[in-house]
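Saturday, quiet lab. Running sequence design on the structure tokens for the scaffold JK sent over.
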């Protein structure tokens, strides 16, 4: 047991050091970047369904009330490898990116109480856009090139607990709470380069440092009906203000071939202090399942992103987000000792999201009807049990499309490969004296 625990801890630490939040989507320029999908690999392989999931062997940070259903110590570490294909009119670009989905540990303290601790990336920024202004060319200045790059994002450290009320046989109500610590830096770097000898180029770096706590809540109701279970889930995150500091650093520089030479510092100041306002989030879900055999569920998520603000400034191009998810899993025969593939959990899900960005705000043409940014996903996956163990290896693929190849907009198609390990064991078992 001790050897296994040491191995897991070492693996987690080395993975954190080498994993990084990454995206190359131009849409991450806006707001706090691309909002990462909720859940671990099991949820993502069902397109994110998680509001009413109460699995006894998998962590579910989306609804903290789910922790009380854990009957073993559960440790999960999940990764994602993404292939992005972006198209703007006749221009195309592809990127291969890696990302950590999250890591966490949860375990029961008693029959009714469980706690959890975890880490998940919340949003990601990673764009690089270049624009050349040919209209400002003259014999003096030459061509001017504008570069816009951004990186960083928000991460979330989670400490949660849940309590389960056994109302009567076959009827359970669980409540839970997460204390979330948001931490991250969002950097936006803008530069102007002049293709002419004797002129200085200019670059400014605006960085926002976010550090603060926030809470979210969940409730789960599980009712046994004959040989099946009906589960209802509700999650709620109130509007929150996260402390933010904006720093501005700008300087001049010159270019000589591939080399860059520093010129002079223009500004290096704390620009302002204030808050990043996260909006209200509300999620609901309903699942019906047959233990160790199958589950089908439906989730609805709403986020009031039109209330997002940074330093009391709202954004006209950010709108409310609505998401609909349908997913489930199937295990042919969990106790089949002769055919391994009958014990595998086969997962599938589809989802549709509309909002967060208003595409009409980016189209200067009159009467634009592009509407809200839409995101379509279909997901498939496998939960492969480790022999003589309650642990699992999880694999999955997710195929998605968002945006539009109209006007100046960008159409994104992506494939996510998901891989994770779920360890389940009794780490805190009391020894008996014989």
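Result came back. Writing it out in full:
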């Amino acid at each position: 047991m001790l050897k296994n625990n040491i191995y897991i801890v070492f693996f987690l630490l080395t993975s954190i050091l080498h994993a990084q939040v990454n995206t190359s989507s131009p849409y991450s320029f806006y707001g706090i970047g691309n909002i990462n999908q909720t859940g671990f690999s099991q949820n993502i392989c069902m397109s994110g369904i998680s509001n009413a999931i109460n699995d006894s062997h998998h962590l579910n940070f989306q609804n903290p009330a789910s922790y009380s259903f854990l009957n073993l110590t559960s440790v999960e570490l999940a990764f994602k490898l993404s292939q992005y294909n972006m198209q703007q009119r006749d221009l195309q670009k592809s990127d291969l990116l890696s990302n950590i989905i999250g890591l966490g540990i949860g375990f029961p303290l008693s029959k009714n109480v469980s706690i959890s601790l975890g880490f998940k990336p919340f949003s990601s920024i990673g764009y690089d856009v270049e624009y050349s202004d040919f209209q400002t060319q003259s014999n003096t200045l030459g061509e001017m090139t504008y570069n816009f790059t951004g990186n960083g994002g928000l991460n979330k450290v989670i400490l949660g607990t849940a309590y389960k009320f056994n109302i009567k046989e076959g009827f359970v109500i669980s409540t839970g709470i997460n204390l979330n610590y948001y931490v991250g830096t969002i950097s936006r770097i803008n530069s102007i380069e002049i293709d002419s000898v004797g002129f200085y180029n200019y670059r400014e770096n605006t960085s926002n440092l976010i550090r603060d706590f926030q809470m979210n809540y969940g409730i789960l109701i599980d009712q046994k009906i004959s040989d099946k279970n009906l589960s209802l889930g509700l999650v709620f995150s109130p509007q929150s203000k996260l402390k933010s500091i904006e720093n501005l650093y700008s300087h001049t520089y010159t270019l000589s071939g591939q080399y860059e030479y520093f010129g002079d510092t223009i500004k290096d100041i704390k620009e302002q202090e204030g808050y990043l306002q996260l909006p209200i989030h509300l999620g609901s879900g309903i699942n019906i399942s047959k233990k160790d055999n199958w589950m089908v569920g439906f989730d609805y998520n709403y986020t009031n992103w039109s209330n997002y603000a940074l330093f009391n400034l709202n954004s006209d191009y950010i709108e409310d987000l609505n998401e609909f998810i349908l997913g489930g899993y199937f295990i042919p025969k969990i106790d089949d000792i002769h055919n391994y593939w009958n014990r595998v959990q086969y997962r599938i899900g589809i989802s549709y999201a509309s909002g967060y960005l208003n595409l009409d705000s980016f189209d200067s043409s009159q009467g634009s009807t592009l509407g809200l940014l839409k995101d379509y996903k279909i997901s498939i996956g496998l939960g492969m049990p480790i022999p003589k163990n309650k642990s699992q290896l999880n694999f999955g693929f997710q195929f998605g499309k968002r945006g539009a190849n109209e006007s100046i907009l960008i159409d994104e198609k992506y494939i996510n490969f998901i891989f994770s390990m779920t360890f389940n064991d009794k780490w805190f078992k009391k020894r008996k004296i014989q």
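Notes for JK: The radius of gyration is 24 Å. DSSP finds two helices and 19 strands in the chain. Ask whether to fix the surface positions before the next round.
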